[in-house]
Amino acid sequence: MPPASTAEPSGQEVLVLDVYSLVYRAFFGVPEMVTTRGEPTGALYGFSSLLLKLLRERRPRGLAAALDAPHATFRHRSFAGYKASRPPAPTPLGVQLRRLPALLDAFGAPMFCVPGFEADDLLATLSRELGAAGEQTLVVTGDLDALQCASERTRVHVLARVGGGRTYDVPAIWARFGVTPAELPDWKALAGDTTDEIPGVPGIGAQRASALVRSFGGVDGLLARLDEVTPESLRPAIAEHAADLRLWRDLARLSDDVELPPGPRFAAFDEAARTRLRNVFDELEFKSLARRLEQI
Q: Which runs of E-coded beta strand occur in 118-177?
């Protein structure tokens, strides 16, 4: 049964940023830029432009930033093929990533990075903690994996490849995938995910995966009642991948109980942040962005 529609959140939201996802998207979405010193800045410009737009249009209570740690995660240790074919960051982007901490600090966003976990796990943990504290949260990402964060108090804004994006609440996720946010890992285990290199079960596409999750409640229920699966032709493939299905589901499931360092979970954009950004934008030669600061 589809989830009931939810009203727009009352009050201001906390923006929780999937930083590398957004910067990577900006790198490929903004024309190449360099300073008069020859330093590449296009990704930083695109990322900063997005944040200024969010601040101006959404007037959030504050910002928080989640970043991937430069180490293997529990997923890589569990499944050697997990994201194995992803190329390293292009050199011009790697140069810009070194400036990210200072830029985020200028915006005033607390930065969260925990070895062994991906940024998506930190998004889920921050969303849960903030929701428990009574905050409304908007996760901002370029990655559909973060849709698991959606709840009564959390929405997820996924940027489109070419401008704009879509904001998902729980009913919107049901409308697109036919499952709840908590069931997305089971759905992905069955249907597969080329981005994360999860193969899925041959013969099971997106729509059939949705129907199976709704009928059996997920991978465990499906395997326990395999003799009820129709059409019968699917049963051998599901049985053959029984162990894989549990592994793929666990790989896809976000951890929302990561132990984060003590301290505030978000910070407001204030006049001190505006001053810091003016200085950073001046150093990076972002004259047009410096003018946009006055609109916030």
A: 136-141, 154-159, 165-168
